[in-house]
Protein 1
Amino acid sequence: MATRHKSGQNAKHINLALQGGGSHGAFTWGVLERLMGDRRLHIAGLSGTSAGAMNAVVMADGFIKDRREGAIASIRAFWERISETGFFNSRTQAFWKGYGSTVNLDSTPLYGMFDMITRMFSPYELNPMDYNPLREIVEEMIDFEEMRKHTELKLFVTATNVRTGKPRVFTTHEMTAEVLMASACLPLVFKAVEIEGEHYWDGGYMGNPSIYPLVHECESKDVIIIQINPLRRDDVPTTARDILNRLNELSFNTSVVREMRGFATISQLIESGQLNNHHYAQVNFHMIEAQDSLADFNASSKFNTDIAFLEDLHERGWNAADRWLAENYEMLGVRSTLDVMDVFT
């Protein structure tokens, strides 16, 4: 599907699936800035979880206020605010820098203490008032009431129901600050978020992100996955820390692997002619990934909100999207550039 933009070219409609991954979401910030700045593209649908949900909703809010320029400015302002309020930022670096890596935090005393305490005490004990500076940023920056009126913006945010273990996908007309807090609620750090009598944790456990709404509820049949949790590792982890890091990556990739395996099977049946029901249509899948860019960053770096680190991730994301467009733009609306069977099965 395409629409006309100011230069007279046909803008290709795309849907974006944005993974969560803490501060690694700044990589997605860079990707979104590059895509939003390209007038050959029109972003029709956004599905996000955790940091991916933040990116999606902040960008949508900026777009409502001032179109493409507003979207780009809003998402930058959001990450700059994150760098100011995050615990492991430039103001606290004296307590964690100088212990080996300035990106990975696991060798620093401050992170070691944080990790130990959050495993020994629950947020109901450590943070009974449920203070979360992210909530303040979201409430100040985003006009949720206005956003809910713009139902042509296809937004899908996933959270995990603590009681049932099922994912819940919230749509544009349901969007609130509580929905975003639920999607990004780390169980060892924050209390479960209550919405309509149910309690929710981070959506990454059950849908990181949810792909099916983009396929079934959006007109565009081009879905670009922004993958920030590495699917592959060349080496088998042997240290306790490396094992925990890989478990973190696997757990936050499980849902997308499972869902994409299903799409791969359907696509294979369509291509072979075994499935010709009109309810099933071919979907073009694409991926902009951080596999190589973030390979050296472990799970502890997802808490690193130092502005220099976030800006570096942003640049890596922008460059990755730029390379992807140079190589694959012409294939949008034509065919998949992601070998779903090879990657996910």
Note: Confidence is low (pLDDT under 50) at residues 4-8.
Protein 2
Amino acid sequence: MRLFAGLYVRLTAQALLAAALPGALLVWNLGRGHDSYVAAQDDQALAALTALVSAEIRGGAPMSGALAAAQHDFRDNQRDGDPAAPLIGRVALYAPGGGRIAGATPDADGVRAVRPLKVDGREVAQLRIVRAPVGDGAGYTFMRDQVVGIVAAMAAILLILLVAGYSIAAAWTRPQRALYRASRAIAQGDYDADVSEEGPAETRATMRNLGRIARSFDRLETARRTWLVNVSEELRKPVQLLGDKLIALHATSPVDDQVAFEDIVGDVQRLSEMAEDLHAVAMADLGRLPVTFATVDPCALIRNAIWTSKRRADALRVTLETGQMPSHTVPVKWDGARIEQLFTALIENSLRYTPAGGRIALGLEGQRGAWRLIVDDSAPGVDIDLARELFEPFYRTSLAPGESVTTYGLGLATAQSIVEAHHGRIEASPSPLGGLRVTVILPAAPPTA
């Protein structure tokens, strides 16, 4: 819309210029032509009046009375259309030396035209036009009608140009708007956006190239999603098998270093969690994350998640505790296994950024047919301005030296996938503990179809 408005404003300005400039030139030329016409009339009349005054002087009339006698003759001859009639009251008789002898007093503009007055070949005086013509009704009406006609014609031209400009702007911006909509949709991941080719050749070529880019991205995205699903599937099986074999081996042949064995089992468990998280993200990316709704108690799920992660938290010297929670059982319809995976992912994310001596608190609050699951950690946390990036797979706010390879950056992405499968939402904000607060809002039961 802004593209159309900008183009139409420019076309409107050009239309105004195209209509106003010729109109102003026509009005100016009309005035100039009228002045030239009046001047030509005055010159013709002055020549006729000069002849009459010369005749009066040759007839013996005194110099001072010759002009009055000639003008008297003008009045008598006006009905005959004498060309000198427009000069009555506008001329003066001057001596050759420049002194006024008789006639009208000059106005501010002074002399308009001069004619020598000769008798027997000798210049005896000068006849000068010293005043402006008196406007008559017919001349004013003529000029007014001409100006009104010019203004009306220019207004009609302007209207035609405005309509043409609107049509041109609409026709030119239509393919540009379609190109903008298609490029925006593709940038947002909609590779099936309409990229129908229309408009000028350059725009059609751009739309065609954009369609090729969208199809290429669609193939790459499909391959990426399929690859992630396949990798996660292939990773889950050997990791699970490895964990089972370790436990079976320990049952048949106990090891001497129990602590080292438990560390290995813990690493295998985290590797298994990573495989599960990667599978959840990949399946959610395809829109096929499986969830099985059943009646569960979220308070019990929170306590189980704390118990599962407590050993790792103790090793990092981070306090893992419950926050504000209901004192009674809360029946909801969620996928219990997925929600435990959600809590484990959120705790793992907080453990990544909470230093030794810090705290992580998990709470649960009711909210009008839904429940708010809250995970708070202590400072320093992460920059809240990066809230969007926090939920991207493999996103890491830092890569500190010596950071564990198990911090794989899938925690919040996994959490978001599970939350979306439960028709909820997840968001990040500052925590009262000084770090990051992750809030998950889930309906108490899935929406009915």
Note: Residues 398-408 have pLDDT under 50 and may be disordered.
Protein 3
Amino acid sequence: MNDSHAPKDQDLTSTIHLSALRSVPKPRPLEEIFGQLTLAEREVVSQLPSNSAMLIVIAGPSKGARYLINNSETTIGRDPQNEIFLDDVTVSRKHAQITRAPSGEFLVEDLGSLNGSYLNAHQVQKSNLAIGDEIQIGKYRLTYFKGRGN
């Protein structure tokens, strides 16, 4: 019997990227962001030198953790050898990097992580940072502050 007229199996699967379905919050005013900091955190941020920055976990896992960024490159990941060590399976061993551009501005760059890096709820490969930006790496949400000098 010849089955040449029978329908061939068709692959009807597709990929849905759940990150595209994420809720994107409205930008928060800086006053609201600074209002979430403790008095001690506000004092530390106000004393940051102009060539440095800081990531502060305002809410969620590791709330209150502060990470000073004062090198030209700062790696973030699950490997303890990273400058910023985030110990969770949602974080790749070498997940992301913060770099200081010659202009003095800081950038975040994903290093090919499995779960991606997010800036203000948008997945990014590489992007400039502004005061109050929220970087999400795995389950960690870190808020960016840049030093203005004393």
Note: The first helix runs from residue 30 to 35.
